[in-house]
TrEMBL record:
One of its GO terms (molecular function) is phosphoglycolate phosphatase activity. NCBIfam families: HAD-SF-IA-v1, HAD-SF-IA-v3. GO terms for cellular component: cytosol. This is Haloacid dehalogenase-like hydrolase family protein. InterPro entries: HAD-like_hydrolase_sf, HAD-like_sf, HAD-SF_hydro_IA, HAD_sf, PGP-like_dom2. One of its GO terms (biological process) is DNA repair. It is an enzyme of class 3 (hydrolase).
Amino acid sequence: MDRINTAFLFDLDGTLIDSVYQHVLAWQEALDHEGIELSVWRIHRKIGMSGGLFANMLLRETGLAISPELLERLRRRHAEAFRGLAGRVRPLPGAQELLSHLTAAGIPWAIATSGRIETARSGLEALGVDPDTVPVVTRDQVKYAKPDPDLFLAAAERLGVAIETAIVVGDSVWDILAARRARALSIGLLSGGYGQDELERAGAFRVYEDPASLLEHLDEVGGRR
């Protein structure tokens, strides 16, 4: 019987780069600019899902009327504010080493992020990832983002692997839910601010602190050749 090889599909923000709180502050600035008051903790709980769904849920919590024009203004303001904070974004501990190890071992990997390329580009540069040579799927390339499975399905297709043989690595419940809907196993990381119990309840079969911890335990989750 042929051995099934594992591929890894990574979220970006909070999984490979330390950018969750920059996104929170950028969304807060966008909301403030529209005169919408919302607690920062409520914003944080939505990070990781698609921008459109994220804005819809936030506005639903405020009871305000939602219009496509308002959503587009929020998206653009968020992207502009995030670019102003992008200089503070750094790779999470072990992220670059993890990706280098997978590459050296011949283990396929890709990145699938709910962010658009306009906000993802700075994080990819910080990681040293070139989207022209590494499979990177962004919100611009799929119809629906997380918690829908489209991003991870597209990433698996780019790698030429069956989604059932892939492991999704993410930091939010939205990543884990999208993985379940895609029929992939998932690993949760604590580096985005969600707790271990939340990630496990969403469906993660293992939870580690950050990419460095995952690299240390990679052989336990099928990451070997």
